[in-house]
Fold each of these.
Amino acid sequence: MSSARSMHPLCCIVLDRHSDVGGDRSSDPAPAGGDEAESAPTENGEDVAVAGVLYKWTNYGRGWRSRWFSLRHGVLSYSKIRPGDGVAKEEGGVRIIGDASAKLSARAAAGRQASAKPVGIVYLKVSSFRESKSDDRRFYIFSHTKTLHLKTDTEKDRVAWIQALILARSVYSFRTLSERISSLSNGITFSTNRLRDRMHAEGLREDVIRDCEHIMLSELSEYQRRVKLQYEEHLKFLGTVEQHLEDINTEDEETTCGGHLQLLKTEFSSSGHGKYSEYSTTESSDDVEKQETDDMSDDDEPNFFDTNECFSDNSGSHSCSTLTRVTHHECKNSGSENIGDVKIMHSKEKDCCQDVFPYPERRKKLPEPVEKEKSVGLWSLIKDNVGKDLTRVCLPVYFNEPLSSLQKCFEELEYSQLLDEAYEYGIKGNSLMRILKVAAFAVSAYASSIGRICKPFNPLLGETYEADFPEKGIRFISEKVSHHPMLIACYCEGKGWKFWGDSNLTSKFWGQSIQLDPVGILTLEFDDGEIFQWSKVTTTIYNLIFGKLYCEHHGIMNIKGNRMFSCQLRFKEKSLLDRNPRQVVGFVEDTNKTKVASLMGKWDDSMYYYKEDDVSNKAAMPTENACLLWKRSHPPTDPTRYNLTSFAITLNELTSELQEKLPPTDSRLRPDQRHLENGEYGKANEEKLRLEQRQRMARKIQENGWKPRWFERASEDGTYRYIGGYWEAREQKKWDRCPNIFGEV
């Protein structure tokens, strides 16, 4: 892009120098220098140039910070505003937007503030911008390298900035620049009359004048040849870029990376072409205060990749997927897969994400065990506990995996990109695809349970767990809010959505099996106001004494929406004659109880859907039109006896940098769980016994008025809701009300 910008002013400077030799200047372009050569008139014949103060979202620690923004020649630049540094002195003809901006500009003009160095530049030729629907002062600018979340002082100032951006985009488009460059004359003549007259006046001989004239024309001719070659190279580059942008606009499919790469089409689309225009008021990320946009220093902003852009999932999940349209032609391409005796066709997913962003490096495996693990007598342990509540049974760490129930709650958000895609579908008006993606997400929560025969640690009262995953665009907080009954509350923020709920698990031993019945409602709310709620199904673990342990999920899951659609999913219970276990079938119906789509798949592998309209021809098999909704990620290359997924392996990771930020109640600081992960089984058993003895006091503590720190019970429905403040306390490292629950009594 820099080469395209430097080519046009250079040509104008050369033409201006040639005309000074003595040629006719009436036909040459107007002289220009530097960036002014690239300026283009608006409809009123004036350049698009505005400046002023805008508030830019940086991160959760700094929040909204004022920056001086300047829009000139189709380039939006911004710099910091500091005492003694200040803002840049704007040249004449620049319109200042906002009262605060006018005061700063006046001080800069008076010389009381020095010119500030820009820390970020955005080229409007390859950018798009949108207004916020929830805040009349906010708007967003998207480019292929960053996303700027901006806010003005007043609604009037936002209108002025948006109008300036629209005008600048229309003036400084690629095609406009190409046409202006192409209008330059390729044939240039030189005149030496003025030079000859001046040399005659000095009394030089004619042969000397001719030699000087020949030398000058030879040098100018060589200079012109080199400039012409450079001009042609830049023009060829500009044509290549234009063709690339046109190809993007004419693509049939929209490829999303973590649910958000479809912004690429919006960013590079031309006005009036394609599905999106250059400027749209469609909301991109309404609740930007709850998105972590960078963890770096503000000085690094030009190299910052925002989490709203393409992101990779280090856990190995399918964060890159193809948003496939529901058509017979598209669904019959590429691969195929069998569900029972039915052959399902689906499109291949595009591997469009690469791990090139400045996100934390997650671990790929657990530490090597320090000790050799010892087995225990199962029958002697189980026979005395038949029919008892599992939460009251004291089990050795042999039956535990190195995760707590708080961390297991977050593990169910491994495929959160499905919710990102659901949000994008909703803002584009496709409510059916939204609920289909939500249903796939609800099923995907069970995918990690295959082979997971060990029990997670039961949290202590007041124990918490946080998860900050900028590569997935989410952050999560959970807390054990009650000991009797045992309740865990959680809350998660994503790109355009919020997810929360509290869960209670009742469990019983039945000799050869354990039945786990979840109690509680999960709620998903999108920023546009659409809400979905559902409850989990029953889980049974078989073959406790004889045979190989395995688990099954069975029951009915009803996903209720507050708008057009609702969904019902049935997790089929395993039978002796069933050759195709773990099946899930369901349907989506509208408010008139009319079935509009059907779902099928396996909770441990994948989910598909087809629309009822696509199978109106009863002679055709409905599964011929089935399209892929979700596919389970690949297992890790170095599995353990716990059969943790690649994502689960990262959940209990504790680095020295992270340990300094965590509250003393975080699950990663729990000693018995940490010893188990390290393979120190003797120490793990000792610590587990000590903490369980301490936990027996939890009921009395709760009855004496103990309350959770980050959640409170809502009066309307009785569920626990997040009250806020955790991430702010984390930034300040203020954990006053968070006791050391893992220490000595």
Note: The chain has three domains: 2-38+178-249, 49-173+270-303, 321-348+388-539+626-635+642-732.
Amino acid sequence: MIKEITVFSYGDSNLLKTWSNVPYFFTKTFADDGVSVNRVNVEPNRLLAGLWNRVFLRLIHVIFKNSTYTFDRTPFFRFLTNRKMKIAVQKYPQTDVFISISFSFHPKNILISQS
């Protein structure tokens, strides 16, 4: 029986408007069934993302006109997200299941490195 889950989502899963409301209804369904849900937002820091996208991305566009190398595609963002996930794994040690609602990040990589 699953008693506690930790869900990593790109955006606040408490908000109905977060990407097509999938994270909201996904976590709400578990909570409605009595499962304790820990929500971890892995969305990039707005200040860092804004700085990258307004300054560095413009410089990149000078060389590569159609580049889509936004902040959330950088190794730095990947590092920060993995760090958030590691902290969550340590913060919620009683979690039965870790779930990532993302195409880019998987908690398995974090759990293996914690062993």
Note: Residues 4-114 form one domain.
Amino acid sequence: MEDTGLRARFERVKEKARLHGDESQHEQTDKWSNRDLIPLPPSRRTWGWFHYFGYWTLSSLNIANWQTPNSFLTQGLSVAQALGIIIVGRALIVMFSTLIAWCGIKWHIGFTIQNRFTWGMRASYIPLLQRILLNFIWNAVQVWNGGRLAAVCITAIWPSFARMRNFLPESFPATGDEFVGFIIIWVLSTPLLWIPPEKFKIPFLVTSIYTGLGMLCIMIWALVTAKGAGPLLYAGVSVPQSSMWNVSWLMMAGVNQTLGGIAAGITNGSDFSRYSKNGRSFVIGTITSGWITGVLVCVIGLVTTSAAEKLYGEVFWNPPDLLMRMMENGEGSSAARAGVFFLAFGFALTSMFENICGNAVAGGIDLAGLWPHYINIRRGAIITFVAAWVVQPWQLVNRATTFIQVLSSFSVFLSPMIGLMAVDFYLLRGRKIRLSHLYNPNTSSYWYWKGANWRAIVSWVCGWIPTIGGLVATVNSDTNASRAWFELYYMAFFIGFFTSGVLFYILNKLFPVAGLGEYDEADVYGTFTAREAAKLGVVAAEFQTDTYETPDASLVQEAMEKKE
């Protein structure tokens, strides 16, 4: 009897936790679908060009992008060469992002669902699990790094904070002020998890204007105070003669590094492009912010760092370090501390929302693909954010530097995925997919063999095998490794993309699959506007059936006759 009572209580809790959608709006919740996984209806597609401007601003107006020239200049490249890498790299980011995101723009599905027609319904968990792992770890690391900016803000208000006694044990790999900053950023970020992606416009607007103006202000202040830019701005080529790499190889590695740094964001571009009102909005916002703003921020960071070197005799590439120096570690004037507070707050604001959008929300979408019965975007985002305490970023950032380097090089595994996605959608399927088959394995042409498309798995593995040796040698600083390994690694993004893409194309021609180029003749999910349906040659939603099966043939025929 007791066991029966416990089982009954468990079932009641389970039922309360289960998600329920409005099935009249096609929000069926089952093993493969829920409200946040179905193709987005027009009512939820609210993103215009400024949304995408703001979305890309988060990856442009941040500390990592500010510091980008540093990694190239320290290798001995000139300022002109470093900026050349940045311009070309950001242009390629825009190109690859648009290439992958177009599936979301046209069919209004995200990364989680997009992989089902390439990998197979079950094998789509392979890219999904990799994305979830990255979301968990990078979310934790970004919250920790954001904590440093919080510490700057607190020091600007209470200067004694910079000199506080370390209350943590010596064995703990962080100081008390760092840990306090982490807690503050985590707590302040948590309410942002309740903002649905459809309503991101206000956060995008605030972060874009506030942080953009803040960056311009700190550059102007540095130039005026130093009476011009410093010597760093005019650095020429200084590649050591002992270096085994010439300028061409260093620039190639730089472009690869630029692309690899945002490869994770490229793969799941359709998670956000599906919210677009039209493709033009996505392209305009992506070019103006992802490329133009991204390059300008690198220039601002370079100019500011150069002028600051002239002022302080040191190079401060990390904005928190520069801001602390500007107010002399809390001992500066009240005016200096006030200025530093507003600048640090702007950086922290962007860091917080970039993490929410790029890691927490993206992680929520991916987790929803694993357990659609119980997880939607919001619940998945909360799980991702809470996982920061399990990941313990203070261990990763302050101790496991090798692990962070491996994560930064994860594009070795992601670029082959991008190659598969591009070739399958554009070349093999002619940008046509059958939406109803993405959610019903019983009749799906995307089930392949036991839910897996072996062609995708083989092609993906072959895409990263050539470059994995160079990754291992780089992480281990193995100077005795073959030069060829490093050369392959310096081209890892392109090698992975083209190797997997070409092999996948060949395998599909040698071993054809069913359903290539097919699409539903009727709008099963109420996905398209009348104009979109007409352009796609799809029967409008008013003629769909009440189930998730392929629409009844007689209804389709009747609708087509009316259309004619």
Note: The first helix runs from residue 2 to 17.
Amino acid sequence: MAAAIVDAVAEGQEEPLLGSHGEDSRCGDVMETLQHYNSRWRAIRIMYLTMFFSSVGFSIIMMSIWPYLQQVDKTADESFLGWIIAAYSIGQMIASPFFGIWSNYRPRREPLVVSTAISVAANCLYAYVHLPASHNKYLMLVARALVGFGAGNVAVVRSYIAGATSLTERTSAMANTSACQAVGFILGPVFQTLFTFIGEKGVTWKIIQLQVNMYTAPVLFGALLGVINIVLIFAVFREHCVDDMGRPQSSINSEVEENYEVGQDNQGNIDQVAVISTNILFFVTLFVFAVFETIATPLTMDMYSWTRKQAVFINGLILGAIGIESVIVFLAVKVLSKRTGERAILYGGLVIILVGFFVLLPWGKQLPNIQWEDIKNNSIPRMTFSESLAFSWKVQTHLPSNNTVEATGCPIIQSWCLYTPIIYLGQYITTDFLIGLGYPACNVMSYTLYSKILGPKPQGVYMGWLTACGSGARILGPVFVGQLYTHFGPRWAFGLICGIVVLALLLLEVVYKRLVAFSVRYERLQEQSS
């Protein structure tokens, strides 16, 4: 099934035998043979599958973490749940530069296999966190951090694809990589839903004390995908490298780095301003999307008086639709970038994101319904985001005995509910659509531009830092919006997001001419010196 998905994503991709340059693909008397070409693209497709399996392994348990945590450790609260969710991104942020450095000096098969094996072991640990008599929540925290650590191989995957494709192939390959990642995020919750039929009790394999139920079956399935991935890496994956024109190189790492270092005096160093700027733009892209994902459920519960079940179900459908929209955008930018260039698409994507959050600002006069239940006085303590979530949960679940209906509306503990206008449903749906257009375009263009800016040097370390920036954004985004939204409301939260995107656009405007391929920059330097 996974292979069929990847083939469908890759269908229509331009994979010319000579790197789309015909006779220009010669390197002395060396030309890419059909055998080399087929082997190169088989390896790239294995990287697509690696990305797909990794994203499935992440998203397949997201809906079940909280009930599983409550089951294995009664002392866990919503605040600790936040740490467990953040542990994945923290692990990935730490691991990405490490695996990137490793892939620069050793065959990439090594970090790929080791990182995947760590994820497999971590998923197995997650399935056994119920066994100890105490401290189960900390074991779950470690398991999720190790899964994130294994996911640091994203840097290796993208650096390999950057080195195994020509400039004309790279945008398409990077778009396919992101599309496979998006498909994995979409299908993960679908697989989780199917495993719910096993039930909470499930079956127990007494010999190894393994409980297979609706909470552990998904991670075991993720571990199985990891094992399949390792087998494919050993059986099918072969390392290949081509230059920007699509000409085969004799070595993956050492030869390319040697050629790079020899040519540095003539070609100049990597444009570090462009590198840092692209990292910042990528950080902003993932930051605003993390904010959007985090705020979706509490925002709709506050604004539209949805119950927890309604909010989870409807927002799940919306995020699924955004995922499908993102896949379409990933595939569309492959064609559009040939006409407009990557920089223009990145700029347009940021503008769309800006418009999306601007639309989300409250402009009307109607106020949201207030949730008054179980509030006995007007003295409301100042709370942190995690404390307010926990208090809100208690308000909604521990109602007076004479009231069996779930309390809905904007909690009175959020004082802004008394004077901030409602965000209409039409505004919210419009923002969903615009984010689904802008985010994937910015995501894939950031990776593509970054790989082209770096040029022929092995990109493991640089890709590791880019991935770490993305992980940091996913950590800071929820914290940022949690504090602002809880204490000051959507007007301040989304207004500041608009300000951040405007600053990103100004940065892109300043460095626009510098965001070019390494070889193009070299040609410009040659023209200036002549």
Note: The longest strand covers residues 203-205.
